[in-house]
Specification:
Layout: H1 6-21, H2 29-35, H3 40-51, H4 55-61, H5 64-74, H6 78-82, E1 97-101, H7 104-109, E2 115-121, E3 128-133, E4 136-142, H8 149-159, E5 164-167, H9 171-181, E6 192-196, H10 200-209, E7 218-219, H11 220-226, H12 233-241, E8 254-255, H13 268-283
Parallel strand pairs: 1-6, 2-5, 7-8
Antiparallel strand pairs: 2-3, 3-4
Length: 286
C-alpha cells in the first residue's frame, strides 16, 4: 500500500464509498473518477496502487453479495466463527495484541497519579491519535474534520479527569504506527499491550474481535455466540461501537447478519477502505 497523505486517503475513500453505494448500477471507471475530479487513467492507477485491485474489480468484489457470500461460505457455524487460523498470513491476533482491563480501583481514581502521553501518527488511512500509559495503549482514534486531535484529547481528559497529559511520541506509539506501514506478516515480535477502561462484558467482546483474521468478517450474532451470550446482540453491538482502539481491535470486521457493512465510529468510508485493502491482500486479487 502506498503511504498516502490524509487528503489522498480522503479521495480514495470517496471512490470506495461511491462504488459501494452504487454497485448495483455497476458504475464505470469514468463515473467513479468524476466523483473525485480525477482523470480516469490517474484514478485507475491510484486506486490500483492503493487498494490492490482495479476499480472495476472492486465494484464486483466489495458488494453486498460479496459480504453475504463470505458469511455463508466461511462463517455459517459457530465452529467457523471460533476459528483463529494462526497459520494465515497478515493478521492481527492475540499473539501480538494483549488486552488488560483496568481494575475497579483504577476506575474510581479517575486517572489520579497517571501520566498519559499522546501523539499524532500518520497512516495510509489518515492520521491517528494515539495515547498510552506506562502499561499500554489506552486510545487509538482516526482523526477527521469531525474528530480533531483536540477533540480526541478532550474526550480522553474526560475519561481520566485527574491524570496528567503530555504530548510525546513514544516508542510504543511508533510501534503501533508501524502496523499500518508494513505488510503484517513482517510484524514486530513483541506484544502491543492495551490498557483499557471497560466492563468485563466489553473486554470479552473486544478480545473476541482479536480472533477475526484479517480480510474476514463476523456478524454481531456470531460474536455474541462466541462469547457465550447468544441473545446479547444489542449489547455486543454497543461494545463494538465503543471500542476505544481503532484497527488494532478490528471492529471494522464486524458487519450485520444481513450482509450490510453497517456504520463505523470513524466513518463508513474508512471501514470500507480497511476491508477492501485487507480482502484484496488476503486473496491476492489482481
Amino acid at each position: 500500500m502506498k503511504n498516502l497523505s490524509s487528503s489522498q486517503f480522503t479521495v480514495m475513500a470517496s471512490m470506495i464509498e461511491y462504488a459501494y453505494q452504487h454497485f448495483d448500477d455497476q458504475p464505470t471507471l469514468e463515473q467513479m473518477a468524476a466523483t473525485v475530479d480525477l482523470s480516469p487513467s490517474y484514478a485507475q492507477r491510484q486506486f490500483q496502487e492503493w487498494v490492490g485491485i482495479s476499480p472495476k474489480k472492486f465494484v464486483q468484489y466489495l458488494s453486498l453479495q460479496r459480504a453475504k457470500a463470505l458469511l455463508q461460505q466461511h462463517y455459517s457455524t459457530l465452529d467457523a466463527a471460533l476459528e483463529t487460523g494462526l497459520s494465515g498470513t497478515g493478521r492481527l491476533h492475540d499473539l501480538f495484541i494483549q488486552i488488560e482491563g483496568m481494575t475497579p480501583g483504577e476506575y474510581k481514581q479517575h486517572g489520579a497519579s497517571l501520566l498519559i502521553t499522546y501523539s499524532i501518527q500518520a497512516t495510509p488511512f489518515g492520521d491517528v491519535f494515539i495515547a498510552s500509559t506506562v502499561k499500554g495503549i489506552c486510545s487509538i482514534q482516526f482523526l477527521s474534520d469531525a474528530l480533531t486531535d483536540l477533540t480526541a484529547l478532550d474526550q480522553l481528559q474526560q475519561r481520566f479527569a485527574l491524570a496528567d497529559f503530555q504530548p510525546k511520541s513514544t516508542e510504543l506509539h511508533q510501534q503501533v504506527a508501524g502496523w499500518f506501514q508494513r505488510d503484517l506478516k513482517h510484524s514486530v515480535q513483541q506484544k502491543i499491550p492495551l490498557r483499557l477502561q471497560g466492563t468485563p462484558f466489553q473486554l470479552k467482546v473486544w478480545e473476541a474481535l482479536l480472533t477475526i483474521p484479517e480480510g474476514q468478517l463476523r456478524s454481531y450474532q456470531q460474536i455474541a455466540e462466541q462469547i457465550g451470550h447468544h441473545k446479547a446482540i444489542r449489547a455486543v453491538a454497543s461494545a463494538v461501537a465503543n471500542n476505544p482502539i481503532a484497527y488494532l481491535i478490528p471492529c471494522h470486521r464486524v458487519i450485520r447478519s444481513t450482509g450490510m457493512i453497517g456504520e463505523y465510529h470513524w466513518s463508513k468510508a474508512r471501514k470500507l477502505a480497511l476491508l477492501s485493502w485487507e480482502m484484496a491482500k488476503q486473496e491476492q486479487v489482481v
